[in-house]
Amino acid sequence: MKALVIGDVMLDEYWLGDTNRISPEAPVPIIKITDENFKLGGAGNVAANLAYLGIDVTLVGLIGIDKEAEHLKKIIEKQNIKMAVISFENLKIELMEPLNDKSPITRFLEK
Questions:
Q1: Which one of 30, 47, 87, 88 is CB 3.0 to 4.6 Å from 59, fit for a cystine?
Q2: What are residue 105's phi and psi, to 5 degrees?
Q3: 76: which residues sit within 8 A by CB, 6+ positions away?
Q4: The whole model's pTM is what?
C-alpha cells in the first residue's frame, strides 16, 4: 500500500526540565532544561504514523533552509519516508513545548 501526504511539515521540539521555583519577575515557573526531544509534526506526524504501520509513504511540503530543516530531513530519512519537500529561505514552522515532569507548561510557535 502507498500513501501521499501533503501539508505543513513541522518540527516538534520538546524541552524537558525541572521546576523548583517561581520567577520573581512574573508568576511563571523557572525551568532548568535537562533534555530535548525532536519529532515530526503536522503532516510529518501523519506520514510517520503511516510509515510505522508499514505503508510506503511520500511526504510533500514546504520547509525552510536552516538547521531545523536539516534536522527534519534526518528524522524523515530515519523513518523511511520518501520526501518531496521544497525549501524556502525565511520559512520556519517549529513548535517548541517546554515540559515539566512530562506535562506541558506553555507553548511557543516560532516563525
A1: 47
A2: -105, -45
A3: 40, 44, 47, 59, 83
A4: 0.74
